[in-house]
Amino acid sequence: MDADALRAKAREFVANQPTTDRLEFLRARFDAGLAWVHFPEGLGGLGAPRALQSVVDTELAGTPDNDPRRIGIGLGMAAPTILRFGSDEVKKRFLRPLWTGEEIWCQLFSEPGAGSDLAAVGTRARRENGRDGDDWLLTGQKVWTSSAHTARFAILLARTDPDLPKHQGLSYFILDMDQPGVEVRPLRQITGEAEFNEVFLTDARIPDAHRLGAVGEGWKVAQTTLMNERVAIGGNAAPRESGMLGAVAKTWRENPDRHTSALHDRLLRHWVDAEAMRLAGQRLRQQLAAGAPGPEGSAMKLGFAKLSQALSGLEVELMAEDGLRYDDWTLRRPDLVDFTGRGPGYRYLRAKGNSIEGGTSEILRNIIAERVLGLPSEPRVDKDVAWKDLPK
Amino acid sequence: MDADALRAKAREFVANQPTTDRLEFLRARFDAGLAWVHFPEGLGGLGAPRALQSVVDTELAGTPDNDPRRIGIGLGMAAPTILRFGSDEVKKRFLRPLWTGEEIWCQLFSEPGAGSDLAAVGTRARRENGRDGDDWLLTGQKVWTSSAHTARFAILLARTDPDLPKHQGLSYFILDMDQPGVEVRPLRQITGEAEFNEVFLTDARIPDAHRLGAVGEGWKVAQTTLMNERVAIGGNAAPRESGMLGAVAKTWRENPDRHTSALHDRLLRHWVDAEAMRLAGQRLRQQLAAGAPGPEGSAMKLGFAKLSQALSGLEVELMAEDGLRYDDWTLRRPDLVDFTGRGPGYRYLRAKGNSIEGGTSEILRNIIAERVLGLPSEPRVDKDVAWKDLPK
Amino acid sequence: MSATLIYSEVEEDLRASVRDLLADHASPAAVLARCESDQPYDLELWRLLGEMGATTLHVPEELGGQGASMRETAVVLEELGRSVAPVPFLGSAVLASAVFTVLGEPVPSETATLVVPFSSWQPVFSSGPVRSVADATVASLFIVPVSTPDGPELHLASSATVTPVTSLDLTRPVADVTVSESTVLARGADASNALRVALLTGAGLLASEQVGIAERCLFDTVAYLRERHQFGRAVGSFQALKHRLADLYQELVTARAAARYAADALATGEDVEIAVAVAAAHCSDVAVHAAEEAVQLHGGIGMTWEHPAHLFLKRAKADQLALGTPDRHRAALAELVDLRL
Amino acid sequence: MSATLIYSEVEEDLRASVRDLLADHASPAAVLARCESDQPYDLELWRLLGEMGATTLHVPEELGGQGASMRETAVVLEELGRSVAPVPFLGSAVLASAVFTVLGEPVPSETATLVVPFSSWQPVFSSGPVRSVADATVASLFIVPVSTPDGPELHLASSATVTPVTSLDLTRPVADVTVSESTVLARGADASNALRVALLTGAGLLASEQVGIAERCLFDTVAYLRERHQFGRAVGSFQALKHRLADLYQELVTARAAARYAADALATGEDVEIAVAVAAAHCSDVAVHAAEEAVQLHGGIGMTWEHPAHLFLKRAKADQLALGTPDRHRAALAELVDLRL
Q: Which residues belong to any copy of the Acyl-CoA dehydrogenase/oxidase C-terminal domain (chains C, D) (predicted)?
C-alpha cells in the first residue's frame, strides 16, 4: 500500500465517520487498519511501511484521539512486544483495547535490587497447575512503576530459574493488575510528589498463555521492549527556548534586579547548550526521516539530563531569598511531569531524576562508549554465574 | 640524640668549618653525620629522628649547599632505596657522592609500554658470567627520564623472568650510565623543549653486586622508591597568589582592556580554588609536622594539575591576538621547569604535563578511591598471568 | 605566622561530644520524621546543645559564653552539617550572637535570630516585613536592622509576626517576619558594623557546616557503593564512579582547609574578609556538588523521600544561597585582592 | 520550515574527494614535518584544492565560483580540521572571499587574506600595522579595513610587509602585517557591512573546522585506547575513560548540529547572527575539550612532539581565540535573544 492509496483510505474513513463517540470512533479506526499502519491487517494496521503512519495522522488530525502520554507505555513498549512475541489469541485480546485506551498498561521491570542491572531481577515466577491449565505464581517487589495505580495490565520480567546465569533464567509475562496478589503503593520522591509506584506481588497469578516468548527467553523479549522505549524518548520537535530553558529564561527576564554577571554567563552557556541540543534533536529526526537513524539518541538523553540540572540549579541561585522557598511538599500523584508549571525548587529537584529514569546517565555513557564508539567492555564477573550465587 | 645535642654538634661543626670549598665542605658535613641525620652513622647521619633534620638545616643555613633540584632524584628516590636495600659496600660507595652532588642520579622506570602500569616493564635483564663474577646484561627502552643526560648512575627496574606474573619477575638495579650500551636521546615535548630523555639499553652491563633486593623482588624495592617520590611532591609552603596563579593574575592586571565579565568570574573561581589548594597544602604540612600525616597528598597533586590547566587555558584566551603567538619553539634542554619565566602559550602547554608526570591524574584517582576512600578495586585480569602472555 | 588549620585535641574532643549527642537525637530517620511534624525544629536537642555550652563557645565569658573561639563553634557546625540537625544554631548561636558580641552586649539565653533575608550577603537596613528569615519560627528575640531618618539602627524585639514559609530546606525552614515594637540596640556605624560582622561571621562559619554536609554525603555514598551490588560487583568498584568520588574527595580536602582558615581568621580577626570570601565561595559549591553526587550515585533510592539523601541536597542548595551566593563572594573577593573587572 | 542539518549526498561526495586528497597530502607525519620546514604552508595542496573547486564552492558562478553554498564550504572545513592541513583556506577562501562576494566583486584567483587580528569578533577599522593576521605569509592580496577621515574603508593591496610570528598554532601561523600602498575597495556602510559579514561568515564556518578537529581527536583517541594495553586490558575498557569519551561524544553530537545550522543559516541568510553565535560559542570549547582529552588520554606519548596530538591541541586552542572567544559570542547572543545582564 503506497502513500496515495493510504491517503485515499484515510479520507474515505473520515468522510464516513461512523460515530462521534470517542471510544467508538477509535475502535472503528482500529478495525479499519488505521491505528498503526505497519501492524498487520486485523490488528489495527494494514501491513504498510511504518513511515506512512504520518499520512494517516495528517488526514485524521482533529478526530477523537487518546492522550498519547496516558497510553504511552502500552503503545511504546507493550504493543511492539506483544506483536512480536504474542500468540494470535494474545494479540487479538490485548492490542485493540490497548490502542483505544480502554486498558492502560504499565511496565514491571525494575526492582530495588535490579536497577541498572535489570537482568538481575529476582521476582520469582513458579509454575503451578491451575484450573485452566498451567499458571504461574509471582512473588517479589517491583519499583519505579508509573501508571501502576491506573493500569489494568502490566508487562513484567520475572525469574523462572535462579540456577541459571542471570540472563538465562528470566521469562516475560503479561500480568493482570486487578487481583489480590498485586498491591500498588505510591512511591514518594524528593519533590514531595509520587509519580511512581512500588508494586508488591504475593503469589500473583498469570496463566501460561500470557507468557511472551519461551521460558528462559525473557531477556531477549525485554530487549524488544527496551529498544522501543529508547526510540520513543526525545522524539519531539521543540521550538527554540522551550522546556526547562524557557522557564529559566523567563525567570531571568522577570528578575532584572537579581542579575549578576557571573550568573549571566552561566545562563548564556546553558542557552547555547540547549539550542545546540535542540538542533541535534532536529538533526536526529532528519536522519530518522531519511531512513538513516544515527546512534545519537543516547547522547541526547545524556545531554538533556545535564542541561536540565544545570539550568534549574542556576535558577534557584538566581532567585536568592525566593530560592529558599518551595511551592508545595504535599504528596500528590501527578499524571504528568510539567517542568514549567511549578517553581524553581521543584524544577531543581525533579531534574535530578532525569539522569536516573529510563536508564541512568552512567549506563548511557556505557552504552555510548561500547555501542557507539566501539570501546571494549569491562571484564565481566557475572556472565557465567548462577543468579542465585551472585553477590547481592 | 636530642635536639639540643644536635644543635650543639651542628654549631660546633659550623664554628670549625674546615674549608670554604663547596665540595670539600659538603664531604666534611657528610662525614660529620650532618647530611641526613636519620641516616646511620658513617653514612652521612647520626641515627637521629628524621624530624630533627630541621635543627641541622637551621644551624647550617647559609653554608655551601647543593641545588636540591639538581640532586633531587638521588636524594628523594635513590638514597632511601639504597639505604634500605643496598649492601654495606653499595651504601659506602654511592651515598656520599650522591649527597654531595658529585654523582647525579636518574631513574629508569617508565617504558613506552609501561606507563601507568609500571609493573609491566619489559626491559630484559639476562645473567652473564663476567670477568668479576656475575653480571647482568640489559636490553630495552626507558622513557621520561629527567637528568639522564647529566646522570652518572640510574636506579632501574628490569624484567629478570618473563615467565612469572608481572609483579614477580622484576629486579631492581643500579646502572652505570657511562658505558657504550647506554644511549640517551632528548625527548622533545609539545612545548618544544626536551626536559626528559629516552634511554636505549643494548646489553648494558650491571654487576650483580649492584642489584638492590633479591632477584624477583624488584617491585617491592620500587615501592620504597615511589613512596618517597610521592612524599616529596607538593612539600613546599607557597605564599598567596604564587606560581601559576601569580603569573595569570599579573597578566590580568596588566591587560585591563582585555577583561570580560565572563573571564573575570572564571579567574575568580580559579583564584578561590588556588587559595583553597594553598591552604590545604598548609594544612597537610601541619598534619605532617604534628606526626599525623593525612592521605591528602594525592588529592593535592590532582587538584594542582586541574588548576594549573584551567588557569593557563584562561590566560591564553584572555590574551586574544597575543594568545595566538608563542615565545619560542626552539628545542631546548632546561634544567628546571619555570612556569613564570615564559609566555602564556608555554604555560598552557607545559601544564598539560601536570596530569601525566609523576602519576597520571587517572591513577591518582584510583589511588584516592581505593586507598583513601576504601572503595573496592576493579576485577583484575593480570594478576596470575605470566608477563609474557599479557596482551600488549 | 600561619594559621593553624588542623584540629586541636580540644576541638576533637568537642567534636566527639557533639557527635555523640547528635547520634542519639538526629539520626536520619528522626530528622526525616521531624520534617513533616508540627514542629520541624528539635527543641530538646537545641536545649541540650545549650546545656553543654556548644551554643556559646565563641562568646567571651564576660558576655555569658565559654570564652573559646570561632574555631570551636565551627567544629560544632561541621557536626550539625553532618546530620542536618534541625536546630536554630546558625540563626541564634551564630548570627544573633555575633551581633551581641560585637556590641559588647551580654548574649541572652533565649533563642534569637537576625531578621534579614537568609540570602543576604551585605548589610541592608530597611523597614517593613522581611522575607525568608532563617530560624525565626522558634526565636523569641529578634534583632532587626532598621532604616530610620537618623540612619541605620539595630533594634531588638521580643515579639514578631512570624509566618512560616514552605521552604526548600526542610531542616532549616525560613519564615517571613514583621516586627512592630522594638527597642534600639545600636545606632549608626555601630549598627552597620555589627551587622556587617554578623553576616561575615555567618558566611564564614556556614562554610564549616558545608564541609560537614559534603563529608557526610561523600562517605555515606562510599559506604552505600561498597554494599550495593550490580552486575555481580560492588557498584563502588566501577571506575567511573570511583573517579568521581576521588574528585569529590579532592574538593572536600580543599573545602576543609578553606573553612578552617575562615574559622581561624574569625577567631584571630586577621585576614577575615578574604578568608570568608574564599570559604563561602568554595565550600558552598562543594557541598552542593557532594549532595548532588550523593543523590545520583545512590541511584533510584536517592530520589525517594524515604532516603535521607534529599535532606542533604536541600540543605546544601539552600546553604548555597544563604549569606551570599558564591558569585557574590567572588565579586567581593575581586575588590579585596585587586582583580577588578 | 526547519533547516536541513544532515549532509546531502552531494556533500558526502565532496567530503570523500577532499578526504582522499588530504590523505595523500596531509598525513600527520607530513603535517608535522612541514611545521618546522621553511614553508609551513602546503602550497601544492592549496593549489590542488583550488583545482578541484573546493576553495570557491560558495562563490556565485558570476563571481568566478562554483555556485554552491556555505554548506559545502563547511564540509571542506570539517575535513581540513580533521587533518589540520596547513593551507590558507580560512584566510583566503572564507574571510577574503566573503568580502569580495558581499561586495559583488569577482573573487580573484590569488591567495588573499583579510588584514585583521585573527582574534577579531567585530568590525574594527584602524590604521597602521596589524598584529596576528592569519594566513598572511602566503597571501598576495590583502584586504585592509582602514579608518579614514571620510569614514571606514576597505582597501585592497597587492603587497605588504608581512613579518611571520612564532605562533601557537603550528599549522596556521599568524603574522604582523603593514600595508603601505592600497586602492579603495569599498567605503562607508558597504565597507562596514562587508567586514561584518566576513567576520560572521568566518566565525560560523570555523565552527565546522572545530567539529572536524573534535571528531578527529575523539576517534583517534578511541582507536588508540582500543590498542593500548595496561594492566592486561585495553585501556579503552576502563570505565572512567569510557565515560569521559562518551561525554565528549555527546558534545560532538551537539557541536555538529550547531555547526551545520550555522552553515545552513549562512547559506540561506536566515537567523545568521544567532546561528553563528551559538556555533562559535559551542564548537570552540568542544574542540578544545576534545584536543585536551586526546593529549591526556594518550598518556605520555601525547605529550611528545613526535605524536600529532599537539598539532590538534594548538589548532583547537588558537581557534578558540580566532574570530571571537566563546564568551564574546555569548555576550553577542545575550543581545540577540534578549537575555541581558
A: 200-335
